Amino acid sequence: SSLRVVYAFAREMHPKTSDVFIEYGTAGFRTKANLLEHVVYRMGLLAVIRSRVKNGRTIGMMITASHNLEPDNGVKLVDPDGEMLEQSWEEIATRLANVSDNDLESTTAEIIKQVNADMSLKASVFIGMDTRYTSPRLAAAAANGVIALKGTPKEFGIVTTPMLHYCVKCRNDNTYGTPTEEGYYEKIVGAFKNIRQKLSVWGDYDTTLYVDGANGVGGKKLNIIKKSLGGELDLKLYNLGGNGGKLNLNCGADFVKVSQKAPVGVEHAPFQRVASLDGDGDRLVYYYLNDTDKMNLLDGDRIATLLASYITELVTASEAQDIRLGLVQTAYANGASTAYITKHLKVPVTCVKTGVKHLHHAALSYDIGVYFEANGHGTVIYSDKAKKIIRKIAQEGEPEQRKAAQLLLDFVDITNETVGDAISDLFLVETVLCARGLSAARWLKAYDDLPCRQLKVTVKDRNAISTTDAERQCTAPEGLQTRINELVAPYKHGRSFVRPSGTEDVVRVYAEADTQESADKLAAEVAQAVF
Ligand code: NG1
Ligand code: ZN
């Protein structure tokens, strides 16, 4: 049969060369790039099957290892509405990635049967990649997989992860926008320019923004956008991948958040705010150095609170009734942020397991859901109901109500609702800072973060650790939680938890307490207990 030819081709062109077991985790498959070619080819096959199960709607494939260093790479699938692959398919993806070349044919046939795919339907797959030197080869393997099962691949070349999610969504729902990179700029940057014409620059807001591009794709795209921005925002871009700068090495959002240090490659001026992106442009944190070079971090929790409070203000001013706004965090959210949101903003908070798919899912239960991981990955989603109410007020409300509702509609258009997006989030943050006349230092004044520390511990089997209660408690190995409780007890404002990473072969330890010394000490003690 023709499929026989497909599998002969697979063995020939994209053979499985390693016996290392690989798993579809929180961010798809992610490992050393040289172990991935057969995996990506097979995900091309799976994307076609998935597209057919979804009646020929377009599926996305993104080749990236996000904030990991250059030698790594990865692949993840994007579902038709631009969201992460449905969870029940993760196990299927893992099975297909790990079978031997000899069993590839029979396993593919089994999967087709299991998911009841009609293989006579058309199938469409959008493929994007980050700037890694191993990405073009992997993107080609992905396209080969798609073609092998007679699907139609469309390659977008180098794009940010959220741009690919956006294009997939638009392709399947043309009311959302045009499924191209240009369409993305038109909608998101266009809405930003729109809203900025309605706001005046005042107070402590400074229109100059420095950006750390992590030597990845996000900075490159901002360089394109920069030219189309007028006086609204003056971007000074650093770490764009030239001058020997290495991807994510001592720079980028993950480095800044975890090490709490300023990245290399960026010029600094006292109190100048800097936006730091990660390697594939889906995470964003801000920071500034003060006049003694002290680091002041504004992480995902800060962005979430800033956006939530501004949206609340606009919803209130528009006098929209019956719109319930909520915020979703993970256990990594700083305890001070959670207290500020519930007590000061009076916005309900849900805590879920790590991984954007969990946050996104929980956010759906609000009319407007703001979700962010502390590391700067997040966005806002608005229900159809909320959008309808706001649109109506924008047209029919009293002048003051109308004004607020129209600002809110621009805000919605700046938002990439499919997934956390550093570029979209950057324009959202800049909008709020401008509307409120805020400097970064004044933004930071909203609340004081509890000092915290994150550590990684390498153990023999990280999956020996099981957790519950949104990963805040561990249930195995026996006795570990009791030990953590004992260690935490003496610390003022102490909190600590451990969980196996879904993207690296490590156990992550998190601790916070009233001083940095205490947070560091508690983290080290808990790490010792894990080890
Ligand atoms: P793991 O490795 O499972 O902790 C990390 C991040 C997640 C998420 C994924 C995907 C932390 C503590 N964890 O997951 O939030 O962003 O990577 O990139 O930041
Ligand atoms: Zn990323």
Task: Describe the protein in words.
42% of the residues lie in helices and 18% in strands. It is an alpha/beta fold. The protein folds into four domains: 2-158, 3-Layer(aba) Sandwich (Alpha-D-Glucose-1,6-Bisphosphate, Chain A, domain 3); 205-296, Alpha-D-Glucose-1,6-Bisphosphate, Chain A, domain 3 (3-Layer(aba) Sandwich), CATH 3.40.120; 300-444, Alpha-D-Glucose-1,6-Bisphosphate, Chain A, domain 3; 452-530, TATA-Binding Protein (2-Layer Sandwich). Strands 1-3-2-4-5 form a five-stranded mixed β-sheet, with helices on both faces. A five-stranded mixed β-sheet has the order 7-6-8-9-10, with helices on both faces. The model has no long low-confidence stretch (mean pLDDT 96).
Topology:
Elements: H1 2-13, E1 29-32, H2 37-53, E2 59-63, E3 72-78, H3 88-98, H4 104-114, E4 124-129, H5 135-148, E5 152-158, H6 161-172, H7 181-198, E6 208-212, H8 217-226, E7 234-238, H9 253-259, E8 274-277, E9 284-289, E10 295-298, H10 300-317, E11 325-330, H11 335-345, E12 349-352, H12 356-363, E13 368-372, E14 378-382, H13 384-396, H14 399-414, H15 422-436, H16 440-444, E15 452-457, E16 466-468, E17 473-476, H17 480-488, E18 495-500, E19 507-512, H18 516-530
Parallel strand pairs: 2-4, 4-5, 6-7, 6-8, 11-12, 11-13
Antiparallel strand pairs: 1-3, 2-3, 8-9, 9-10, 13-14, 15-19, 16-17, 18-19
Bound molecules: 2-acetamido-2-deoxy-1-O-phosphono-alpha-D-galactopyranose and zinc ion.
2-acetamido-2-deoxy-1-O-phosphono-alpha-D-galactopyranose binds at residues 26-27, 66, 332, 354-355, 373, 375, 377, 501-504, 508.
